[in-house]
Amino acid sequence: MDIKTASSLHRLRLVSAPEAVSFLLLLVCSVLKRTTDFNAVPVMGAIHGILFILYVLFWLDAWNRTKWNLKTAALYFLLSVLPLGGFFAERKLKHEAQDAVIASRARREGTVNA
Fold this sequence. Notes:
The chain is mainly α.
């Protein structure tokens, strides 16, 4: 993987945790709306919607650059729609991005030394 691919994974990773938090907050707001007079669902829904759209756009970019197989791409998408899935995606993407940077540096050093 090259640096652009690692950057793509990094962007997806950066949006996955906030998207997961917004999803959890939206669920809490939905419960509060039905049990109290507090209604933050419209605001939280908009925030979560924007973060989810960013996640999907970054997911598509990462899938295109990394050439994930369908199973891996589907896993990352499924994690975005599970309440705690974004946290698992963030952790998995962190390791994948670090591996991409290490591979890129090793390839570059190998090219320079050859």
